[in-house]
Amino acid sequence: MHGNPNLKRAGTTGLIMVAYWLMKSEPHVYPYEQLVADGSTHWDGVRNYQARNMMRDDMKEGDLVLFYHSNFKPPHVAGIARVCKEGYPDFTAQDPNSKYFDSKATPDNPRWMMVDIEPVMQLEQIIPLEDIRNNPECEGMLLIRKGQRLSVQPVEEEHFLAVLRMAKLSLSDLS
After folding, report:
1. Could you say which DSSP state residue 159 is in?
2. Which phi and psi (to 5°) does residue 24 adopt?
3. Fewest CB atoms within 10 Å of the CB: 6, 12, 32, 54?
């Protein structure tokens, strides 16, 4: 099974519910501050089939994202982003000059997908991985599971809200 097991799209009220995600970026490659400066970006270069499938099938416009700085000391959640364009072919896979080039990707079979995200809020204080790991409310979160290395991963609502509380925020602060 892939995707967010708590994915809810349309309730009996007809309201569209968002799903929650965590996306990892190395700060020396693309920091949250750059997302703020750019206004939005395409999330290219994902070369894992499970992550690709989530971006292609499950991530929807309006979904909220914990923007996570990996390969950094300490690794941490730096901000909140929002999916602003749903999955479409990752054009870097077909660019021979791109470090993400895939010779098997073609216009008819693009193989790799990406979404666009936009900044919602930079956190006043980063939320270090160790704090998430030590928070009982985050128990079971994919990010802290052994062997979990996906750069794009679903986040259960209870865990997303726990991280927001750690930042002294609530969902209403994000609208």
Report:
1. H
2. -100, 135
3. 12
Number of domains forming the structure of the chain: 1
Give the domain range for residue 76: 20-166
pLDDT of residue 81: 98
For residue 7, is it within any domain? no
Residue 2 resides in a domain: no
Let me know the angle formed at the C-alpha of 110 by 106 and 111, rounded to the nearest 5 degrees.
Answer: 120
The verdict on residue 39 lying in a domain is: yes
In this prediction, residues 68-93 reach a mean pLDDT of 97
pLDDT band at 106 (very low <50, low <70, confident <90, very high): very high
Q: What is the CATH number of the domain that holds 61?
A: 3.10.590.10
- pLDDT of residue 4 exceeding 70: no
* Residue 123 lies inside a defined structural domain of this protein: yes
Question: Which of 19, 27, 43 lies closest to 122 in space, CA to CA?
Answer: 27
Query: Model confidence over 127-165: pLDDT tens digits?
Result: 999 999 999 999 999 999 988 889 999 999 999 999 999
Sheet of 64-69: strand order equals 41-42, 113-128, 76-89, 64-69, 20-25, 152-155
- pTM over the 0.70 mark: yes
* Cβ(23)–Cβ(114) below 8 Å: no
